[in-house]
Amino acid sequence: xxxxxxxxxxxxxxxxxxxxxxxxxxxxxxxxxxxxxxxxxxx
Length: 43
Description:
The protein is mainly α. The protein has helices at 4-14, 19-26, 30-37, 39-42. The protein has one domain. α2 (19-26) crosses α3 (30-37).
């Protein structure tokens, strides 16, 4: 099973959203979204 970060990245690309747009949509800081997207590199 893919990590949350990997699934989030796939969905973001499918929806053609930037990290900033995604962050605004879900009500999070852009840095929070960016950290989740790179989560896969830390594991």
